[in-house]
Design a protein that fits this description.
With about 160 residues, the protein is an all-alpha fold. It has seven helices and no strands.
């Protein structure tokens, strides 16, 4: 990749790895728990889309699908980002999950949640920041710099 310096490439790969770790860890904690559910989080939703999230939490069948997709989506997205395989698609999937989290709990003025938040936010929170970071990662083939995709491809994409 001639258009990136070595330092830029390293920092992009590190960004992919730390976001991957965050997703993987969040997924593992939920899968290992066995009793985890998004129900309380969804019922805590405020803002313009809260009715949608409350209806998901109220329907046991839809909630179980939502819980499964949440647990395993986080875990698989994280694994994909860490291993550097299908990381562009993992970035898109992660962005979609983060969009739902943001819409469920938007950091808008005047909205308070019963669940504690880390810090104080005004429109932009850590969910939004991670969303945009994944957007940046989706634009760069970091898996070709360091990842299983590079290994399987067998080419040195950095020096073409």
């Amino acid at each position: 990749m001639k258009y990136l310096t070595d330092r830029q490439a390293i920092w992009l790969v590190l960004l992919r790895l730390v976001i991957g770790w965050h997703f993987l860890y969040e997924g593992l904690v939920k899968v290992i728990d066995g009793n985890w559910s998004a129900r309380a989080y969804l019922f805590d939703s405020q803002g313009p889309f809260s009715a949608l999230f409350h209806s998901i939490a109220s329907n046991d069948r839809i909630l179980s699908v939502t819980d499964f997709l949440n647990e395993w989506g986080l875990l698989l997205i994280g694994l994909s980002l860490i291993l550097g395989i299908l990381s562009r698609w993992a970035s898109y999937a992660g962005m979609l999950m983060l969009l739902f989290y943001y819409l469920s709990h938007p950091p808008f003025p005047g909205i308070t949640y019963s669940m504690p938040a880390e810090g104080n936010y005004f429109i932009i929170d850590k969910v939004a920041i991670e969303f945009f970071a994944l957007g940046v990662l989706s634009l760069f083939p970091t898996e070709q710099i360091a990842g299983l995709a590079r290994f399987f491809r067998g080419k040195d994409q950095n020096h073409e």
